[in-house]
Amino acid sequence: MVTQVQNSSLASAGTANDVLRKTPGVVDDGDGLKVLGRGTPEVYINGRKVRDASELDQLASGNIRNVEVVTNPGARYDASVKAVIRIQTKKAQGEGFGFNSRTKAEYTKKAGWLEQFNFNYRKGKFDLFGLLFYSDSYYWKAHQAVQDTYLDKHWTQESRTDANSRTHSLTGSLGMNYVLDDNHSLGVTYRTTKRPYARDYMTVGTDVVRDDMPYESSVNDSRGSSENMRHALDFYYRGKVGGWSVDFDGNAIWQSAEAETKVEEQTTDAAKEVSRRTVTTASDTDYRFYAAKMTWTRPVWGGSLVLGAEYGHINRTMDYRNNEGILEDNLDKIRENNASAFAEFSRQLGKVNAQVGIRYEYDDFNYYVNRERRSDQSKVYHNLFPSATLLLPVGSTRFMLQYRSEIRRPFYSQLSSQVSYINQYTYEGGNPLLRPVLTHSVGLGVSWRWLTGQLGYQHVKDDIFNTSEPYSDDEPIIALVSQKNAQAYDMLFASATASPSIGIWSPAWTVSINKQWMELEAPGGTVRLDNPLVMLNWENSLNLPGDFQLSVGVRWMSTGEMQNTRLMDDTWMMNASLYKAILKGRLSFLLQADDIFDTQKQNGMLYSGKVRTIRMFNAPNSRCVSLTVRYKLNAAKSKYKGTGAGDSQKSRM
């Protein structure tokens, strides 16, 4: 499904992030952008994979031509990719130097701001482009949790968390493209991101009750600091050799991070005895990643044949230390090699367009602890992933039937054997024995003018759930927060969107429903989590006199269940923005207000095995007011055509 942005109200939405939040079939559920019924998408800008989420915030909506949402990506994409969003920017006009500058000021509970400067120089077949970006951001979150643990005694831990952080971030990029002739072009881009300052502050108050009698209480003050440096180099070549169109992409990433945390705790027991302790932890993480992807395309048998291969290698090392010896020091290392080959064929058969594909993936995963390879945690996988799509027009209505086999490999942090210290009642660790998640998806899509609908079914095996278990039999009140694979379950999804244009008013209504069939072990027996989850989204855009544009959006989510979590209360939020451009569009102002009534709060129950449940209440960092001022002059857009390689491994980093 393609949404036109150029010459529409979306062109003044602000950034690419703002456009995607208002694109039919895409929602921001508070945990990032999601494609309805498919989950988190991979995003491409002019064929180049978006590797850093800040890139979407750095692309102005006025430079976007259209947005395409693909719910069945096909064999040429990694089997972990459930959906793809392709952003096409407007074609540049003329030559010479151009720039686009942006200043944004925002306020949540404290003020933050950013500065951005894009430039581009175009001359003949040569194109040079770059970006400079700086931000000073503030984040906060309030969280309450009640953990009930049922062992020989009934333990209840009620905690209240107040967390905030401040981060300075610097980004710079420089790239070039060169068009040799009509059949050959190449380019290279270097991007570096540095986080020179990051400070985290968290206060946790906890009351512990044993068999309905007060046991102890504590106050925990945590102070953390971190630094991060990332370098990324991308190279592409596009050409024609004989009757084949050839695409090559190469990527390399070097990343390092350092973090330190100091926790000061004060505990008071039932006899009013007070004890204190300090816990300090430090970690150093280092990534090295390399990938290459080659694709060949040519007309054959009355259709189009695509053949390709991809390779990726990653080396990740994490050194974790606890000075007081409360937790074990660990040196974790992951070495992973991935190789894949794919074939895809599409052809028009009368009115029907058919596409079939097959993808083979090989994954060699090696896990080391303190320089010793763990054979039980190291694995080799061989997987085949078929896919198919049928497009059938009937009059002005289009039907799409699709099938895809998919995989989601665990994040590297989820596979870690290290145990991190949160407070004296909560430790956090990974699970090196996690298996990949396998999914079979079938979907039906229907579109007619400004109406679209989707119906989908998924069978999910070995899904990864957050879980919490007693850290040890000797210390049952200490919870180890980790992940585990769940039993297979089924899920059904349906949605409908209406987006007409009525004079100066451009509304868009979306209703979606998710229903799963799941049974889990819980204290007291088996619990069924199969209540549907309903979401309503209403976006409005009004072209007002004086060339002002007003946008208002409302999102509502019902109670219901997703994975091993039960949402106990409805949630809703309202956003609004006002846009005005002057000087023939060169200077623009955008005033935005997100979560105006501060209602984006979550109340849920997490089921975590036979002995534990966790009731949670989250108040996220969602209410914000901001003003963006943008000035552009002859801002030519880059011709960069790289599509990226090794995207699944990069996302797991």
SSE topology sketch:
Blueprint: E1 2-4, H1 16-21, E2 26-28, E3 33-35, E4 42-45, E5 48-49, H2 54-57, E6 64-70, E7 84-89, E8 96-107, E9 111-123, E10 126-150, E11 154-181, E12 184-210, E13 213-241, E14 244-269, E15 274-300, E16 303-322, E17 330-349, E18 352-369, E19 372-373, E20 379-394, E21 397-408, E22 419-423, E23 426-429, E24 437-448, E25 451-461, E26 464-470, E27 479-485, E28 489-498, E29 505-517, E30 519-522, E31 525-528, E32 533-544, E33 548-557, E34 560-562, E35 565-567, E36 571-582, E37 587-594, E38 602-607, E39 612-619, E40 624-633, H3 647-652
Parallel strand pairs: 4-7, 23-27
Antiparallel strand pairs: 1-6, 2-3, 4-5, 6-7, 8-9, 8-40, 9-10, 10-11, 10-39, 11-12, 12-13, 13-14, 14-15, 15-16, 16-17, 17-18, 18-19, 18-20, 20-21, 21-24, 22-23, 24-25, 25-28, 26-27, 28-29, 29-32, 30-31, 32-33, 33-36, 34-35, 35-38, 36-37, 37-40, 38-39
In short:
With 653 residues, the protein is mainly beta.
Overview of the molecule:
This is Outer membrane beta-barrel protein. It is found in: Cell outer membrane. The chain has a 22-stranded antiparallel barrel. Strands 1-6-7-4-5 form a 5-stranded mixed sheet, with no helix packed on it. A 4-stranded mixed sheet has the order 22-23-27-26, with no helix packed on it. The chain has 653 residues and is mostly beta strands. Helix content is 2%, strand content 69%. The radius of gyration is 26 Å and the shape is globular. It has 3 helices and 40 strands.
